[in-house]
């Protein structure tokens, strides 16, 4: 079995500093938040980020969908450090410094594009009892520039070092041209390019950019809701998840040396994946519902576990098993956090 090497996994996306704190109902009401929700910050939420960091107990973590997955892949592998490279844009500010520190602690080789027109992106997790209200302010994450970062020789060399690439669909809203450059490199060199449908709105409002990348996608991830929306937008005329997976597999593909693999998770229900010509289901790890603390990072965790095995060329079944294991660990904790070492055999 091959072992992982430094910079073998490359991720690019929207880096966010996750800021978690316990708040009360008055705090939620003040900013018009629901106890369990995920929203993008508007002007009336700007003061929220300043206020939440003044709370007595604040936790910081390196976040954002792609960075979460890279972080989890690194945790699953443990050694060597810096298997995962990550690119994204941050601000030259205090939150940016904390984010760099948190990425280092996670042993991720983060190379951020730093600029001073927008502050570092943040995601406030306002915790009330068992509920979390998430407010994301993308800010600097929206400012990534291909020609100022990805195209630089020293950075592009890190892209070339990788064997497996993963970019969440969210990054289509920021820099589709950066995704295309990486995807073409992977395809031309017979490396593995993975992408995630990420959210229903990506298939709806960024359809054209998504379909420009699709011919280069070797592994496509999504959940049942994202899969259904994608199928509807593409006119697949089916609501059957297994059939949607097959239809996605059969979309035009550039590198014919690799058959596209499609993996759709369905929460507590079986994961659906294409294995060669067949569509197979894989049961998730059994868990007592009362043990579930927070399902928010489950999708990112699944992908991270999957990628950890993909990098060492494990068979698909093992990649999915690792994905299920990682997701199972994450949903029993607050936020996208994990114990010191995995217990995955």
Describe how the helices and strands are arranged:
Layout: E1 9-12, E2 16-22, H1 25-30, E3 37-40, H2 46-52, E4 58-63, H3 65-77, E5 84-91, H4 94-105, E6 109-115, E7 122-128, E8 131-137, H5 146-150, H6 153-161, E9 164-168, H7 176-188, E10 192-196, H8 200-205, H9 207-213, E11 219-223, H10 224-233, H11 241-249, E12 261-266, E13 269-275, E14 278-282, H12 298-310, H13 316-330
Parallel strand pairs: 1-5, 1-9, 2-7, 3-8, 5-6, 9-10, 10-11, 11-12
Antiparallel strand pairs: 2-4, 7-8, 12-13, 13-14
Helix pairs in contact: 3-12, 7-9, 10-11, 12-13
Describe the structure.
This protein is of the alpha/beta class. 36% of the residues lie in helices and 24% in strands. The protein contains 13 helices and 14 strands. The protein has helices at residues 25-30, 46-52, 65-77, 94-105, 146-150, 153-161, 176-188, 200-205, 207-213, 224-233, 241-249, 298-310, 316-330; strands at 9-12, 16-22, 37-40, 58-63, 84-91, 109-115, 122-128, 131-137, 164-168, 192-196, 219-223, 261-266, 269-275, 278-282. The strands form two sheets. A nine-stranded mixed beta sheet has the order 6-5-1-9-10-11-12-13-14, sandwiched between helices. A five-stranded mixed beta sheet has the order 3-8-7-2-4. Helix 7 links the parallel strand 9 and strand 10 (192-196). The protein is globular and about 55 Å long. The two termini are 14 Å apart.
